[in-house]
Amino acid sequence: AWGVVASSPGAGKAHDELCRAMRADPEAIRTILGRWMGEESVIAEPQAIDVARDLDGAPLSREWLEEHLESRASGCRLKGYTVPEVACVRMMMSTGCRIILDWN
To answer: Rounded to whole angstroms, how far apart are CA atoms 48 and 60?
Structure first.
């Protein structure tokens, strides 16, 4: 199950720091999201894990990306992906991110 980090009014700074710390913890990211991102993903920087999701809110899976990018036809295999926080945008009504694909 996926949840929300909730905080009380006036706790915005602590909320932002907690979320930033969670996105920067490679062990937590790999433990929680490794099966979606690909076990071979190299997580070396904070990740925008809250943005790279499907329409139902679940993390994008390595398999889904591989299938929809038609990589099987070319014989390529997607080992995993990362979503660098530095390449992410969060706005009031929209979010966006760059997904870095790691092919064999």
So the answer is: 12
Residue 91 CA, chain-centre distance (Å), reads 17
Q: Which residues of 60-72 are buried (b: 16+ CB within 10 A; e: fewer)?
A: bbbeebbeeeebe
Query: How far, in Å, CA of 15 to CA of 79, rounded?
Result: 33
DSSP lists the bridge partners of residue 102 as 80
pLDDT in tens, 39-56: 778 888 999 988 888 888
Structure tokens at 87: 């390449």
- pTM of the predicted model, to two decimals? 0.77
Q: How many angstroms from the chain centroid is the CA of residue 76?
A: 22
